[in-house]
Amino acid sequence: MAIQIPRGTQDILPGDVETWQWIEQKAYDLCRRYNYQEIRVPMFEHTELFLRGVGDTTDIVQKEMYTFEDRGGRSLTLRPEGTASVTRAYVSNKLYGQANQPTKLFYIGPMFRYERPQSGRMRQFVQFGVEALGSADPAIDAEVLALVMRFYEELGLKNLKLVINSLGDTDSRLAHREALVNHFKPRIHEFCNDCQDRLEKNPLRILDCKKDRDHELMGTAPSIHDYLSTESKAYFEKVQSYLTALNIPFVVDATLVRGLDYYNHTAFEVMVDGEAFGAITTLCGGGRYNGLVEEIGGPETPGIGFALSIERAIMALEAQQAKPAHNQAIDCYVVTLGEAAKDKGVELVYQLRNAGISAEKDYLDRKMKGQLKAADRLHAKWTVILGEDELAVGKVNVKNMETGEQTDVALTDLVSHMKQQVEGGNES
Ligand code: HAM
User: Fold this and answer.
1) In what residue span(s) does the Aminoacyl-transfer RNA synthetases class-II family profile domain sit (predicted)?
2) Cβ pair 385, 411 in contact under 8 A
3) Pocket of ligand 1 (CB under 6 A)
4) Which atom of ligand 1 is nearest to the CA of 115?
């Protein structure tokens, strides 16, 4: 029996990969304009990083990590997200000591979560994320939000909803935490085992429970907004006023808590409307995580970032029929007839490619008709035909496949002729 692909993973084949490259290019370009620099971190880390960073009461840590022991007996984990690793790299490499501050980083790479696979929920998925470390200015919260919204806009996505909330500072959170415990405690036996477990460890996460979301105590739970300190309130208002100034629409949702432990102050998600999209409507999540760098052993450093999955961006583009067509066309197909011409063809494609022209030839001993068909399938813009007769007089026939126009060109001039054609074609 053929070996199957693991559940929750996918092959991205030619034909689809062009969409990925296009999206990745948009991300690179946007990060360049916003002055975020790429960082590449390992795909596995010491398990402890995620226990401390993501939080040991989160679903990610409790249920979803790919954790294994290596041959040296160390516990390692395939990264379920990027923030903990980037923060670890920031500390390990003392990026806080560099002259350029804040440290503004981005990453694109696979993450691994042992989740129940469904539409838009995979076990290996690719996140594009940014992290800005070293600034507690609400303007940088606005910058991160502007970047992500602009990213989707430049992809051509519509009907996006930016939902923001403030989780407050430590004092606000502690006061809110106590209120939540008092609220749920008398009836906690009516909640699922996970929530019972969360009551003392992390009551905020009860609000995020999918099983108990319809319980009447959920609707009446104390809101974080009633417990925000004056500073937290002022911070959140400033973020909102920047968004308004930038004309970025948003809604405030006091129940948005996020599934990772490291957040405080600004938390946000980007959702997309649309039935065609199925169950998954959250495209992106992020927020501020002042305190995470210290948790990982670094100096006191504020931070904020987001991550979004490219798979979900593509699904949203498909649902909105906004995925652009990417016609991969090659410049030139070299058709040869006869043994001597075939040998010459090997040299010709080599020379054309060296000159920056995309070129292909036949490797299946196809007849002329078959070779022309192959050229057609590759959407070749020009075909170069080289038969015994042409070879004898040192010429090739070059045909523009769009106009049908044909020219005889000296073999020795072919590369420069094709360069001119290709460059001319690209200009128009
Ligand atoms: P997160 O909400 O766990 O946050 O994930 C962010 C995004 O990753 C989600 O909105 C979704 O697009 C995508 N995602 C998560 N799980 C899956 C999955 N199983 N399949 C497909 N896509 C998925 C974080 O990961 C934080 N590190 C975000 C962040 C960065 N916060 C601050 N900086």
Assistant:
1) 1-317
2) no
3) 81-83, 113, 115, 120-122, 125, 127, 129, 131, 259-260, 282-287, 289, 305-309, 311-312
4) 19
From atom 9 of ligand 1, which residue's Cα is the shortest distance away?
284
List the one residue out of 20, 17, 323, 270 whose CA is nearest residue 155.
323
CA 195 to chain centre: 31
Report the CATH superfamily, name and number, of domain 332-427. Anticodon-binding domain (3.40.50.800)
CATH T-level assignment (fold) for domain 17-169+229-319: BirA Bifunctional Protein; domain 2 (3.30.930)
User: Cα(228)–Cα(362) distance, rounded to whole angstroms?
Assistant: 70
- Substitution candidate for ligand 1 out of 289, 306, 315 with most atoms within 8 A of CB: 306
Whole-number Å distance between alpha carbons of 207 and 218: 7
Query: Where are the domain boundaries for CATH 3.40.50.800 in the chain?
Result: 332-427
**258 carries a ligand binding annotation:** yes
Task: Report the nearest-CA residue for atom 17 of ligand 1.
Answer: 121
Read off the tokens for 159: 């009907």
For CATH 3.30.930.10, the residue range(s) in the chain are 17-169+229-319
Instruction: Give mean pLDDT, residues 211-236.
Output: 93
143-161 b/e (C-beta count within 10 Å ≥ 16 → b): bbbbbbbbbbeebebeebb
* CA distances, 260 to each of 133, 179, 395 (Å): 18, 20, 67
| Minimal-distance CA residue to ligand 1 atom 25 | 81
pLDDT band at 201 (very low <50, low <70, confident <90, very high): confident
| Residue 201: DSSP 8-state | H
Dihedral sign for Cα 348, 351, 352, 353, please: positive
Chain centre distance of CA 131 = 13
Spell out the residues 6+ positions from residue 3 whose beta carbon is closer than 8 angstroms to its own: none
* pTM of the predicted model as reported, rounded to 2 decimal places: 0.93
Q: How far is CA 304 from CA 101, 103, 115, 216, 287, in A?
A: 14, 11, 26, 33, 5
Interval 1-41: pLDDT, tens: 999 999 999 999 999 999 999 999 999 999 999 999 999 99
